[in-house]
Automatic annotation (TrEMBL):
Residues 166-249 form the Expansin-like CBD domain. This is Expansin-like B1. Belongs to the expansin family. Keywords: Signal. SUPFAM superfamilies: Barwin-like endoglucanases, PHL pollen allergen. It comes from the Eukaryota. Residues 1-23 form the signal peptide. It comes from Forsythia ovata. Residues 48-152 form the Expansin-like EG45 domain. Gene3D superfamilies: Expansin, cellulose-binding-like domain, RlpA-like domain. GO terms for biological process: anatomical structure morphogenesis.
Length: 255
């Protein structure tokens, strides 16, 4: 009898630990929070977001973008995608909207400050969207989801302040999948010597001075479970790179 009781206790303990572990690592679970919207912007996002995307940060994902508070994570959260749905059944749709993080900010204990366009897209219809805007701040549920950009490869945009060959800064466009870009290396394609880049702010990566010659950018994609993958683009950055230029990596990452 004692052995049976001990076995049942161990079984129940194991099941509880399994349930708690799954709950702690559930990628598809929604988290409750609040969201506001940019009150003084047009329908799309801001061109001056902390992620450093510039105009791209206002128009990516059709303008369905957001600032984040804790989810900004000192810039690591830039480019991440979240499904955000408001919870008022009178106004809100079931699916809500998918937004890309392009900025840092909070308002009245919110996790998201959406573009007007994204805020309206949480609603069931036009009248409901106007009602949501009138509320200003709403209760939401959110979860991280993979970013998808059909027919788009990861792209590198050279910052306007870069100065070849002394200083190189760039941002990464069309970050795909559900993982973070947690580190970036820049390698000479001739001798394969690499430098680990600094995240100066947001999604802006810098190095002084950059390696010479044609350059290969290596990106480390990682998640909360410790899964890490180095991705090496097919295409290199040419030796004569220029500020303001964009370079197609030739790769998509759907992890």
């Amino acid at each position: 009898m004692t052995s049976l009781r001990s076995f049942l206790i161990l079984l129940v303990t194991f099941l509880l630990m399994h349930i708690l572990a799954n709950a702690a690592t559930c990628q598809d679970c929604f988290v409750h929070s609040r969201a506001a919207y940019y009150p003084n912007s047009d329908d799309k996002g801001t061109e001056t977001g902390e992620c450093g995307y510039g105009i791209f940060g206002a128009t990516i994902n059709g303008g369905d973008v957001s600032a984040a508070s804790d989810l900004y994570r000192a810039g690591v959260g830039c480019g991440a995608c979240y499904q955000v749905r408001c919870t008022n059944s009178n106004y809100c749709s079931d699916n809500g909207v998918t937004v890309v993080i392009t900025d840092s900010g909070s308002s009245h204990n919110t996790d998201f400050i959406l573009s007007r366009r994204a805020f309206r897209r949480m609603a069931q219809n036009t009248d409901a969207a106007n009602s949501l805007l009138a509320l200003g701040i709403v209760d939401i549920d959110y979860r991280r989801v993979p970013c998808t950009y059909p027919n788009k490869n990861i792209t590198f945009k050279i910052d306007e302040n870069s100065n070849n060959p002394h200083y190189l800064a760039f941002v990464i466009w069309y970050q795909q999948g559900r993982k973070d870009i947690s580190a970036v290396q820049l390698c000479e394609t001739q001798n394969f010597e690499c430098k680990l880049l600094d995240r100066s702010h947001g999604a802006v990566w810098t190095v002084t001075p950059p390696p010479s010659g044609s350059l290969s950018i290596r990106m480390l994609f990682s998640d909360d479970n410790g899964d890490e993958t180095w991705v090496v683009p097919v295409n290199n950055i040419p030796q004569n790179w220029k500020p303001g230029d964009t370079y197609d990596s030739g790769v998509q990452v759907n992890a």
